## 1
Amino acid sequence: MYKILILFAHPRFEKSRVNRALLNGIDQIPQVTLHDLYERYPDFNVDIEQEQELMTEHQIIIWQHPFYMYGAPALLKQWIDLVLEYGWAHGRGGDSLKGRIIFNALTTGGSREVYAADGYNRFTLREFLTPFDQTATFCKMLYLPPFAVQGTHLLTEAQLLHYAARYRTLLERLSQGDFSLESMRRFPFLNDWLDHGSGAPES
């Protein structure tokens, strides 16, 4: 069994129908801890020691957030800058997070098609997430493709419920160890792995 920490960062969560749907009911998964950063730190005064303790208690970390101006909300960047300290997460003696699994779960107003070399945003979503990838690698963590809900403004209620169900399935499979890192990394999104992947669980 794997313990999962969701580091949730949304400054306007009360107005986000998509993230409310994604998080609905996940507290029923015993291995999942939901940590709402904006609720915990409205003044941005991050408790570094507490956050580091939380990280070490979990094997899988999820940065869940809306995709704002091609990046994460400000508090998540603040969290990364403060919590992932030299000597703890990286650098000399910084092996505290070595081997942990981490990825982004995010929402975008733009559809998947506009995130491409020939699309409106000129780059793929994975390319925009390169700083997260490198940060994870720098801290000796295992970075996975994102779980993404895109074109959020156009989603029907049925489509939204489908994404929420897939996210719950992802969390359940991860918590149960029902996954293969090699298989997951072959897909651009974890959504695609859920729909098409069939890798054997990690031994």
## 2
Amino acid sequence: MRIGLVGYGAGGSRFHLPFIQAAEQWQVVGVVTRSAARRELLAREAPGVPAFDTMDELIDAGVDLVVITTPPATRRSLVLRALERGVHVVADKPFAPDADTARELVAAAERAGKVLTVYQNRRWDSDFLTLRQVIDSGELGQLWRANIVLDQNSVRSVELDPNDGLLRDLGAHVVDQAIQALGPVVRVDAHLDWLGSGEQRTDVGFSLGLHHESGTYSSVSGSKLCGREERTLAVYGQRGSYLSRMADVQSDQVKAGLRPATNPEVWGVPDAADWGELRTPSGSRRVAPVAGNHADFYRNLHRALAGNGPLPVTLEQAVHTVEVLDAARASALQGGSILVGR
């Protein structure tokens, strides 16, 4: 199938194109970017792949699907336009600023008879895949609670834009992980860290208490202004606990010049020193990790479009994540618990 990429900033160049290239089922038709510097980068990273000025020009070149990884403020209009043009769409996260807009995009996809899905690539991180394996093994017994932390020392990437904020950015990742691990969320308690004032006030950190339908509880937090890199996945159950603090392996590998297509033997595998630890009454042990690969999102998507499997991220899941983020923002602004979807 033929695929096109709309946007070639850090997201497009680091988190999409290398993984599309590694998914051999896809042919890259082109990339939309007007920046001369980014066109030079594209020529180095994907020789022969043309750059286009607009998404319409890319669609006219003949694509089955477009991946939209432009800034969040532009996402709604581009998704609607792509669906109107009759192509399938992958929207980067957050795929909508609020649940009402999310439902609008779902309705547009249904009218067009096209697939819309969301790039929740952190489901294919090694640490999260390993966590899911530990949970599925049943060794923890009944699950009680979890602690998920995604802190990044990334001051330069913080944009003081009240329409975005870190809750919609990193929060979309860790909330999705909490839901995938523990099930749907029914109630949220939240605190947000703020910078700026008035109409320019922007949330730059978050700490969420998620009450899951299953009866479990998760604490989810993130920051880019904390001056440290911290990834924590900890789950507590009736029979023990599992703790992982693995590095952001795939991002680090891309920054180091490695690629999943050309370095498959080492891709997404953390160092032994970073393996998670499982503790039960029978003792403790390090857990050999599952290799992560964000390219599996694109492989699974291809299979789904060919009628051979489910979508890697369903719209029901994507809308629920946005509903949880809406409830978190309302909780932080109003104080107290907020029911999800109300």
## 3
Amino acid sequence: MELKKLTGPQAGSLKYDLLTALNVAGLHGSLTLQTSLMRLNAVITARYNWRLDEVSIGHTELARMWRVNERTVKREMKRLTSDGWLICIRPGVRGRVGAYRLNYPRIYSQTEDCWPAVGTDFVERMQEMSGAGRVVKVDFTSAATKPVSLSVVPEGTTGWPAVARRLQQTHPEIYESWFAKLAEGEETGGELKLIAPNSFVAGYIATHLLKFIHEAVKIEAKAAHHPVPKVVLSCRRQ
């Protein structure tokens, strides 16, 4: 999926459309979703750093902004990240303020059904911004690689299963088409070896998608207080 960056001369209108999509999705959803997306929009409009593409804010500040207690803040931030609206890029541990990034592919996919409620012109703009219809999907069902079964990956798991779970949450469309085809190779100290079913998949991921894997690996390693492993991508012998 080729996403349009929210920078440049049209950045203001692009951000406005993104916020509109979140607002309308909340209005079309449950009361819980309405509250969550209203709180998310408040954070975006008040504190989001578009240049760095992240927001760094403490629970005390969020509690004051949302007029709730910090226990509610922790519960809400966990919901927003587990549901995929936000990506945690730096966990808030040991007194350090956490940092989060908007999960654009997830936001677009989760709000798409509501776009027509705003208008056909809005649908066209959102499709252009999200790259809808340009997702490359390839069927590799005949490949020998066995996908990770994320439904049985418990909390606290490390290595590729944990990284794969994060990629599925943060980049669901890309995960389904590409990352789900990867398998973990033989464990080697300091390296995460990933094996693609063929050279085409390995080449495409290496060229276009490896940055997403690196980011997920870094986040999971830091959350587990482990050294960040080197990612080694290869393919099965044909």
